[in-house]
Structures are given as C-alpha cells and as structure tokens.
C-alpha cells in the first residue's frame, strides 16, 4: 500500500485535487467550521480587491515624491500602512530600490512568501520549483527566461524571504516619464518589475 | 540533511515559465477554494503559521514533489486538521457525525474576513535576547543547518547557506523563532537579521562576481567570525 492513512490522512480523500478540496470543504461546512460565504469573501478579496495595483501606487509615489521615497526606504511598513496596505503577509515590509549599479530580485526558496497586501497572490511561476531553485544561483539566466538582460556592470542582489519580512522592489523610473501623473506612472509599473523579474514599462 | 522543500540552488529544474499578462489570479476554481479553505481553517486558531508551513514540508518527499502547489496546501491542511484534533480519520472517510463541533463558535464569518486579512499576524515581539551582531559584522551560518531543537524539524536556514560566511546588512528587530514556534515550543523571539552573502561564497560558479544573496536569519543561526 502506498500510503499509511494514519501518517497521510489526505489519502483518505479523493485523489483528484478539485474533488479533494470539495470533499474537505463539505466535511468542514457540515460541522459548522467553515462557511461557503466566507470562502467567497476571501476569494473575492484576492481576485478583485488586493493586487499589484496597490504596489504600483507605492512605486509611482516613490518616483514622484522624494519625501515619500525617503520615508518608504526608512520604514516601508508604516508608509504603506498609511495608504491602507497593511495586512496578512505584509506585516513587515522593506522597500529595495533598483539603481544602475544594483538590481534587486525577490524569492522564497523555502515556500512562497510574497507581499500579499501590495502584490496580491503570487503567480504560479513565483511558486514554481524552477524559480525557487534557480534564482538564487543563476538570477541572470532566470531573468533571460523573462526576456530581461542586465548590463554586466549591474550587480544582482537576490532577497530570499526566509522570515516574515516582505520585500517590494522599486524599479528604476523609465526614461521619458517626466511630467507624468502618479496614476500615469503607476500604469508603467508591472507586477514583475516589483518582484525584480521585469523592468518598468517604457513611457510612450 | 536537507528536506524536500529546501530547494534553493538545486540543479535540474527547467526554465521558469512566465504567465500571460492577463492570466487570472487563480488558474482554476479549486485553487481559489483551496486557498480560502486554508485561510478559513487557520482562523479557527488551532495552529500558527510556522506549524502550517511545517505541515507542508513534511509531506512525504514523493507527495511534495508530485503534488501541484495547492494540492500541497490542501493535503497538508487535511493532515493538520486531524493532528490538531479538529477532524477525525472517520470524518475524512465520510463516517463522521454532523453534530455541532466544539470549535464552531470560532468559525470565521463572511463579514469578519476583511478585518481578519487587514489585521494580519505580525511576527515581531519583545525579547530579552540582546542583538549580538551589528551591521557590517562578519558572521557564519551554523553547519549543519538542521533544526537545533527538533531532529528533522522546521527551520528557516536554507541548506545552501549552511556554513556560509556573510555580512550583517541590517537588524530587523526581534521576531518569533520558527524553529521553536512550529513545534509548540513557544515563540522564543530573538534578533532577526538580513545577512548578505557573495554569490561566490554560495556557488562554485557564480554568474557574476558582484552578485549577492540576502537571507533573513535569526541570531541562533549565526556565529561570529
């Protein structure tokens, strides 16, 4: 027998993942331990309300307002909390800034830690074995998978999120973006640019 | 000895496949359900975040490798629910009863979701343990990198950094120690640092001599150099 059910209780549930989730949900609902309306509310929050638009606002303001940028670099948790972006998986924030000399990238090699209040639920690639295994050892090869090539003289700094600290990359402000409003700047800030696997979009 | 989730630096994985710009947050409905059920069960208060991470890490290596991301979540959650006495094996077999559960009063209600997610769960705590290291100081990660508290237990020192020398970049404050908290041994808060390692200290053939890896490490993972 492949599984001892006492060591692997999940083997008592249907193996097909959608059915496995459904079976567990049904058992828990019948016992009054979870409420399907609560599940809908959680899903709606991360599908529609909390996502990378929050982080893009923070980046755009950091580009536009030197005082905001300085405060963010000093104590990101307090600054993003003021904007209403405090919460689960974003309790301890640090902002790290890209420069011509230094490019920052973020990973969690041990699981999938990610700044939810600013970027939402991580994309599948961020949680993939390939990203977790490779980016600490060969960040430039991983960047190539995203179509990004850095100048050789730019050092790469990869942050492995092993604790409850969460990192937000502030990408370099693109050339030609002078005079744009905060909202126009935010539209240039992709999710990947705030993880470090992308760059900010070029202003039109 | 390394454990299956601890894969930083591993060779043999293929390319990273970026998603489409318009990819949905959840690829399928059951991914969303798996996340929501996990969060709702966490609100019952029967475990902490370190216990839940440890539950995923100690799935059998065969399961951890073979399962997709949210299969890992839901399978580990099932194990935790049984281990913490919330569900029985009979419940999972469909032979349990539907009587009201003692924890039903703690069920997360829909109108409490926003406040629960906004509150989060900060990990910083007061600690009597004074910082031993200051920014710029040279340190070495303990080797072997296994948990000191429980054989084969939870730790957040990645195997690729065990024994490596680096420099303290910053002190984050004093935080709950996962090695202890994951095993119901108390929060045991202690100083937490960001430590900078040269890529050449970690890898035989780094891509670039100036590249670095920063790892968040607790004081008890480090020794002075």
From TrEMBL, chain A:
Reactions catalysed: an aliphatic primary amide = an aliphatic nitrile + H2O
Listed EC numbers: 4.2.1.84
Root EC class: lyase
Molecular-function annotations in GO: nitrile hydratase activity; transition metal ion binding
Protein origin, superkingdom: Bacteria
NCBIfam families (alphabetical): nitrile_alph
Name recorded for this polypeptide: nitrile hydratase
Annotated Pfam families: NHase_alpha
Residue positions binding Fe(3+): 108, 111-113
Species this protein is from: Parasedimentitalea huanghaiensis
Residue ranges constituting the Nitrile hydratase alpha/Thiocyanate hydrolase gamma domain according to the UniProt record: 17-197
Family indicated by similarity: Belongs to the nitrile hydratase subunit alpha family.
Lineage of producing organism: Bacteria, Pseudomonadati, Pseudomonadota, Alphaproteobacteria, Rhodobacterales
Gene from which the chain derives: nthA
InterPro entries: CN_Hdrase_a/SCN_Hdrase_g_sf, CN_Hdrtase_a/SCN_Hdrlase_g, CN_Hdrtase_asu/SCN_Hdrlase_gsu, Nitrile_hydratase_asu
Keywords: Iron, Lyase, Metal-binding
Automatic annotation (TrEMBL), chain B:
The reaction(s) this protein catalyses: an aliphatic primary amide = an aliphatic nitrile + H2O
Keywords, alphabetical: Lyase
Transmembrane segments: none
Record carries keyword Amino-acid biosynthesis: no
Alphabetized Pfam families for the sequence: NHase_beta_C, NHase_beta_N
SUPFAM superfamilies xrefs: Electron transport accessory proteins (SSF50090)
EC number: 4.2.1.84
Domain Nitrile hydratase beta subunit: 122-224
Keyword flag Lyase: yes
The protein's enzyme class: lyase
GO molecular function: nitrile hydratase activity; transition metal ion binding
Domain (Nitrile hydratase beta subunit-like N-terminal): residue spans on this chain: 1-105
Entry similarity comment: Belongs to the nitrile hydratase subunit beta family.
UniProt function note: NHase catalyzes the hydration of various nitrile compounds to the corresponding amides.
UniProt protein name: nitrile hydratase
Species in which this protein is naturally found: Parasedimentitalea huanghaiensis
């Amino acid at each position: 027998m492949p599984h001892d059910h006492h060591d692997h209780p999940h083997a008592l549930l249907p193996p097909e993942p959608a059915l496995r989730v459904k079976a567990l949900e049904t058992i828990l609902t019948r016992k009054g331990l979870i409420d399907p309306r609560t599940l809908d509310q959680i899903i709606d929050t991360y599908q529609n309300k909390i996502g990378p638009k929050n982080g893009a606002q923070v980046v755009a303001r950091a580009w536009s307002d030197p005082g905001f940028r300085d405060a963010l670099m000093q104590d990101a948790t307090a600054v993003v909390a003021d904007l209403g972006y405090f919460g689960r998986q974003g309790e301890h924030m640090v902002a790290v800034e890209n420069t011509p000399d230094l490019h920052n990238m973020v990973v969690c090699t041990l699981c999938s830690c990610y700044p939810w209040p600013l970027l939402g639920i991580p994309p599948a690639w961020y949680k993939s074995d390939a990203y977790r295994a490779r980016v600490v050892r060969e960040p430039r090869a991983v960047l190539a998978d995203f179509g990004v090539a850095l100048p050789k003289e730019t050092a790469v700094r990869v942050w492995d999120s092993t604790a409850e600290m969460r990192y937000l990359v502030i990408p370099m402000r693109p050339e030609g973006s002078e005079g744009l409003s905060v909202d126009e700047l935010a539209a240039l800030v992709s999710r990947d640019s705030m993880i470090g696997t992308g760059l900010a979009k070029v202003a039109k | 000895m390394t454990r299956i989730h601890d894969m930083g630096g591993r060779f043999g994985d293929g390319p990273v496949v970026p998603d489409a710009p318009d990819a949905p947050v959840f690829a399928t409905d059951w991914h969303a359900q798996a996340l929501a059920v996990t969060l709702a069960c966490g609100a019952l208060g029967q475990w902490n975040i370190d216990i839940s991470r440890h539950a995923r890490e100690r799935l059998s290596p065969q399961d951890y490798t073979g399962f997709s991301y949210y299969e890992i979540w839901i399978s580990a959650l099932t194990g935790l629910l049984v281990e913490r006495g919330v569900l029985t094996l009979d419940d999972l077999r469909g032979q349990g009863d539907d009587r009201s559960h003692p924890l039903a009063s703690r069920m997360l209600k829909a109108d409490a979701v926003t406040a629960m997610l906004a509150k989060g769960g900060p990990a910083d705590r007061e600690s009597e343990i004074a910082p031993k290291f200051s920014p710029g100081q040279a340190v070495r990660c303990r080797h072997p990198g296994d948990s000191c508290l429980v054989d084969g237990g939870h730790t957040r020192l990645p195997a690729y950094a065990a024994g490596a020398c680096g420099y303290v970049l910053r002190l984050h404050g004093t935080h709950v120690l996962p090695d202890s908290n994951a095993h119901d041994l108390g929060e045991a808060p202690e100083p937490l640092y960001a430590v900078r390692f040269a890529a050449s200290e970690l890898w035989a053939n780094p891509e670039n001599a100036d590249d670095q890896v920063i790892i968040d490490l607790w004081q008890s993972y480090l020794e002075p150099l």
